[in-house]
Amino acid sequence: MEWTWELAHRFANDLAIDRNLHIVLPDNPIRKAVIAGARFAADRAGMLIVGSVLPDLSRVSVCLPLGHNDGSLVLVSEYAMSSPIIFTKTMAHEGTHDHQSDRNGHLRNAWDYGISSEARAQREAEAYAADLAVEFTLTGQVRDVHSVLQALGGPTYHMSQGSLALAGGLVKGAVESIQNNVCPPVSTAKWSVEWIHKYAPECVRGELVTR
C-alpha cells in the first residue's frame, strides 16, 4: 500500500493534537496576514534568519512559537505539498522545532536560533533527523549527509563554516543510526515512526527500532 494524502493528513492532524500545532497550508486565506505579521515582528526584533525565510515560503516551511502553552504556528510551504511523503517529512521536521521550543523555552529558543549560527546548526540537524527517519520508514532509503548539508549551507540558514561542520557531524550520526535500523534519539522522530507502524504498517518500507 502506498502512503496517500489521506494518511499524510491524518498523521499531521494527530501530530498537531499531540504537539499543539496550528497548521497553515498554502491555500489558507489567513496565510498572507500571518506572514506579514511574522515578518514585521522579525524585522523589529532584528532576527535576520527569520526575516530571510519568510519571503520564500514557496520552498521553506517554518515553525513560529505562539507563546507559553499556546503551541506553534506551522506555515507549510508550497514545496511541502508536492507529495504526501514530503508533506509528512516536513511535519515531522517542524514538529521537532516545536518540541525544541518547549524544551528550551519559547523566547530563549527563538532568540538563540535567530542570533547563533551554532544553535541554528544544532536545531536544524535535530529536525532533519526526524525528517530522515520518516523518509526511511516510508521509502526504505536514506539520504546522504551531503544532500542535507547542501540545504543547510544555502542562503536560508546563514550558517558559518564551523556551524555547518557541526551540523554535518550531527546529521552523519543520524544517518548512521538509521542505516543500523535504529531511530535517531529525537522525540518527534520516534513519535512519527511509531505512528506509521501503528496506523499504516502496510506502508512501512524501512524498519527502525524506537526503543
Entry keywords:
211 residues, mainly alpha, three-stranded mixed β-sheet, 3 strands, globular
Count up the helices: 9
Which range best describes the helical content: under 10%, 10-25%, 25-40%, 40-55%, 55-70% or over 70%? 55-70%
Beta-strand proportion: 5-15%
Strands in their spatial order, largest beta sheet: 1-3-2
Number of domains: 1
Unreliable runs, pLDDT <50, ≥5 residues?
Answer: none
Main structural class: mainly alpha
Instruction: Give the overall shape, derived from the CA principal axes.
Output: globular
Q: In angstroms, what is the radius of gyration?
A: 16 Å
Largest sheet, strands/sense/barrel: 3 strands, mixed
N-to-C CA distance: 26 Å
- Nearest-integer average pLDDT: 89
Q: What is the N-to-C order of secondary-structure elements (H for helix, E for strand)? A: HEHHEEHHHHHH
Describe the structure.
By secondary structure, this protein is mainly alpha-helical. The protein has one domain. Helices cover 62% and strands 6% of the residues. It contains nine helices and three strands. Strands 1-3-2 form a three-stranded mixed sheet, sandwiched between helices. α6 (117-139) runs parallel beside α9 (187-199) and α7 (145-152) packs antiparallel against α8. The longest helix is centred in the middle third of the chain and has 23 residues, at 117-139. The chain starts with a helix and ends in a 12-residue tail after the last helix. The mean pLDDT is 89.
